[in-house]
Amino acid sequence: MSASASSRKTIIFKEAARIFREKGYNGSSLRDLAKRAGVQGGSIYHHFSSKQEILYMIMECTMTTLILNVRQAIEGVERPLDRLRKAIQFHIEYHTIDTDETYVTDSELRSLEPANYTKIVALRNRYERVFREIMAEGLARGEMHIDDVNLASKALLQMCTGISYWYTPAGEKSISDIAKQYIDLFFWGICRGKQGRQTGESDDRQAHLNR
């Protein structure tokens, strides 16, 4: 593929994510996309076989990047609490960089055809497994107090992913401030022992907040 063709494909890809976010997958047409991307309608088929393929590629690219980068973010970090902090921070920051792609990946899963749906769900499970494994280790080491690791990981990711729905760089808080407050909020729950859940903060939570 030539450099110019690769550039056009990237433009189509980016504009597709933008229009799918604005209008929804079912409300968007390839004619709309071609106009946005500044290409002739038929030329889209030189790069993608269908609108469904574009949606799948947006999600596949997003999930593959998430899996690769979260593992890089936590590499070499020893304590599960520190690893989870790094993973949450990465997740939040990424969802404010490629906001169109991450929004579509989260909101348009229902629009995938069955075969594509199965593949993307498998990638989502691989990504979530990173967080589950950290929490399970933290639980085993006594650093975290979690009744249900699966439920906790889903709740955490849903909470953090929602940032792509409302975050704007023009807001009052920086993304680093938002990430820190999200981390503090989640750690407030998982770093409390049974007694702490009833009466107050645990030493683990206090140590985290003092970092």
Largest sheet properties: none
Uncertain regions spanning at least 5 consecutive residues: 193-210
**Number of continuous helical runs:** 11
Structurally, how many domains make up the residues? Answer: 2
Element-by-element helix/strand order: HHHHHHHHHHH
CATH class of the largest domain equals Mainly Alpha
Helix content: over 70%
Shape assignment: elongated
What can you tell me about this protein's structure?
The protein is 71% helix and 0% strand. It contains 11 helices and no strands. The longest helix has 27 residues, at 114-140. The radius of gyration is 20 Å and the shape is elongated. The chain has helices spanning 3-23, 30-37, 51-74, 80-94, 99-107, 114-140, 149-161, 163-166, 175-190, 194-199, 203-209. It is an all-alpha fold. α3 (51-74) packs parallel to α6 and α4 runs antiparallel to α9 (175-190).
